[in-house]
Amino acid sequence: MSEALLPGDPSVVGGHRLLARLGAGGMGVVYLGRSGSGALAAVKVVQPELADEPDFRARFRREVEAARRVVSPWAVPVTGAGPDEPTPWLATEFVPGPSLAEEIRRSGPLPAYSVRALGRMLAAALGAVHAAGLVHRDVKPANVLLAVDGPRLIDFGIARSTGLGTHTALTSLTATGLVAGTPGFLSPEQAEARTGQLGPACDVFSLGCLLAYAATGRAPFGEGTAEAMLYRTVHDEPDLAGVADDDLGALLRACLAKDPAARPSPGRIESRLAGDERPGGGWLPEHVVRDIADRSARMLTLPGIDPTVTDRPTALDPVSGNPPSGNPPSGGTASGEAAPGNPASGGTASRGTSRRRLLAFGTGGALLAAAGSGTARWALTRDDAPQPAADRWALGVHADLSGPGKADGRAHEQGVRLAVEQYNARGDKPFALGLRTADDGGAEARAESAAQRLVRDRSVLAVVGPTSDACVDGAVGTYDEALLPMLLVKPGAFRLVGRRYRASLHCRPMVYALGFGLAIQLTRQEKVSYAGLLQDRTTDPVAWEITQGIADAMRKEKARFYPRVVPAGLDDLGPQVADILRAKVDSFVYAGSAEGAVGVARSLADAGFDGPRLGPEELAEPAFVGAEAAEGWLLGTSFVDPERLPAAASFVRAFRRRFDAAPGRYAVEAYDAANLAIDQLVRGVRDGRPPERARLATLLRAAEYRGITKPLSFDRDNGRYEGELCYRHRVENGKLRFLGEVPGGDPSGSDA
Fold first, then answer.
1. What percent of the chain clears pLDDT 90, i.e. is strictly above it?
2. Residues 88 and 108 placed together within one structural domain of the fold
3. Of 264, 295, 326, which residue is a domain's last?
4. Which one of 38, 260, 477, 611 is least enclosed by Cβ atoms within 10 Å?
5. Does the model's pTM come out above 0.70?
6. Structurally, how many domains does the chain consist of?
7. Which residues contact residue 227 at a Cβ distance below 8 angstroms, ignoring those fewer than 6 apart?
């Protein structure tokens, strides 16, 4: 889907008039642009700070050169590039359809005839790639765009020359031991960084993974951490269950051979799939064609011109983050913003002309006519623009404030609000802070727009949240592109750590560490010798990471365990519980949802099982804690009960005075994260100003801060929390009783 341009976006790049945003990531932004001839193009623009890195420029020149050398109807052609310009850019033909990854997530697996056609055309594209002396090395569903006439292979960012001579310099950019590609869709030789074996057969293996994904809706080597997927790629057989076409299944097994020499060539794949046309024509099912048509229509509906607003924005209250009571300023609206696509009431005659349009086309009389009305608004978006003193800088809270997780979201907001209010009450503060909130309702689809609201507000210097792993996935690209620090209190999956985002920080241990802590509790505290592990994929990847941590710790402790995995959405887990109990286990761990845990606990109770029963913090919900069968269960969590933590006594008193209630779950953790951000903002003051977003992101990753709940320090490379604390709660009388931290639960191997 295309999105409106942000105020700081350029209007013209390389002769392309930019019309909308198509996507953003750690390296840059992709825009929808129109060339001077009127043709639409996808214009990739590199982040300015990356453009100053010589190695990155060399990689970008390589991408441009590689893409230009590939000629195929199934590969997106380059239409222009500026690798040596101050801000490097690359333009390719615009394909308005969705990626294969998006379509599979939306509509499910493709029928066999579509998979065969997809394989035939992509094999032809790879043949062209290899004929140009290149290996793509990142063939994955996100890099295949769908069109009615066939797929398009994109993104030659890590393509590598297969020859020597003039192209040898290209290969030197890949350091020895670096895994290039996407775990789950790369070859065993890539997974083990066998650089001497990275030839065309790598792409064939990746094509096999991609076609298996298209046929089944899942990656053939599963999900989870990057390390786990790499291990399975090297050592395990692919999961091809669901590939109904036997001939296609045999071809996929050949593509996924561990030995590169045993894989077929792209030409062989193309010929095996040739002449396999669908009766009546068309390579995709009708519902996918409709999806492509709808997507194309939406993306080609170009955004309108933003209105220019001359009114001074209404100052927000620094504590509540809301407009002050009373009437709005003359000529303004109650929100201080014009309605999208419409002039604000009481505006000037020039409101139909945008700031962006003036910069692109404004010369002579048109610029003079609008100058008086547009300049003030333009100035207010700059970092050095004058703003109301109490509202000049702020912290943001991105949370579920209205959906299923609103209790935790509200606790986040209250914890941050208390920290901001206490800071503003200080007599020695170098500047005042406001508070901004953005509600995603717990929906990943709303997370990006919530993040954009905070990103566009230039007063916001750091954000606490989002409050769920799914919403982090929806928002992280937006925050990372703006280098707006994102402090995560509740989400703990590994996904961000492996993707090397620059502005995210985990203010809690990883989910894997909690699994390790549960196992330490079992083996060292409960003294068990044979644990049953039930992983419910309803909550994957969290459930997988929990059980992986448990399994690794049990192996380290030389303890036995009996594992079972059940597919997502299975209502009755009784048979799996019975199977585990038949193995004569002396303890039981369930990694899944609170709702699933109710049935598991009931099955265990009905069977008379009274050994230790454990679960992760996903079970710490009223649906489970209030169930009669949950009595006595032990939960491993990343959060504390501040009312039972002596170090939090002053926080609890202040919280009760402010909100007339006990602190909710994660409130004190959010309070710690906010105070960490405030501490670094104050330490980084220069000339009375706090550090800007990018500098603050760097300062936070280097910080060491003692919070109420734990010391906070981070891996400077990926923002991972360096501690491994795991806390224990026991279900007693329908409530959680805090028991403190798990002793000796350090996955690094040293005992606490």
1. 49
2. no
3. 295
4. 38
5. no
6. 4
7. none
Amino acid identity at 116: R
User: Domain check: are 155 and 136 in the same one?
Assistant: yes
- The maximal CA–CA distance of the chain, rounded, in angstroms, is 86
Determine the Cα–Cα distance for residues 627 and 619; give it in Å rounded to an integer: 11
Classify residue 334 as left (phi > 0), alpha (psi -120 to 50) or beta: alpha
Cβ atoms of 409 and 467 within 8 Å: the answer is yes
Distance between CA 342 and CA 459 in Å, rounded?
25
- Is residue 580 assigned to a domain? yes
CB atoms within 10 A of CB 394: 23
Domain that holds residue 656: 392-507+648-720
- The two tokens of residue 224 are 């989870």
3-state secondary structure of 373: helix
Enumerate the known binding-site residues for ATP: 44
- Annotated catalytic residues are 138
Torsion of CA 482, 79, 58, 196, to 10 degrees: 110
Cα angle 723, 729, 732 (rounded to 5 degrees) comes to 175
In a domain, 33, yes or no: yes
Residue 429 pairs with which residues in a beta bridge? none
Rounded CA separation 715/295 (Å) = 40
Instruction: Tell me what pLDDT residue 702 has.
Output: 94
Task: Give, in order, the Cα–Cα distances in Å from 464 to each of 71, 394, 413, 488, 674.
Answer: 46, 12, 9, 6, 7
Query: Do 286 and 404 have their domain in common?
Result: no
Q: CA 504, 510, 512 angle in degrees (round to 5)?
A: 145
In this predicted structure, what is the pLDDT of residue 521? 84
Q: Are 581 and 569 in contact (CB under 8 A)?
A: no
- What does the H/E/C string look like for 403-449? CCCHHHHHHHHHHHHHHHHHHHCCCCCCCCCEEEEEECCCCHHHHHH
Looking up residue 556, the CATH number of its domain turns out to be 3.40.50.2300
18 phi and psi, to 5 degrees? Answer: -80, 135
Quick one: 661 and 623 in the same domain?
Answer: no
Whether 495 and 586 share a structural domain: no
- The residue-averaged pLDDT of 460-471 equals 95
374 within some domain: no
pLDDT digits (tens, 9 = 90+) for 75-120: 988 899 998 888 899 999 998 888 999 899 888 899 999 999 999 9
Report the distance separating Cα 62 and Cα 65, nearest Å.
Answer: 5
240: its two tokens: 């091809």
In-domain check, residue 263:
yes
Measured at the CA of 167, the angle between CA 163 and CA 171, to 5 degrees, comes to 85
- Which of 642, 636, 635 has the alpha carbon at shortest distance from 665? 642
Q: How many Å apart are CA 565 and CA 543, to the nearest integer?
A: 10
Q: In terms of DSSP H, where are the helices of 136-277?
A: 168-171, 188-191, 200-216, 226-235, 246-255, 266-272
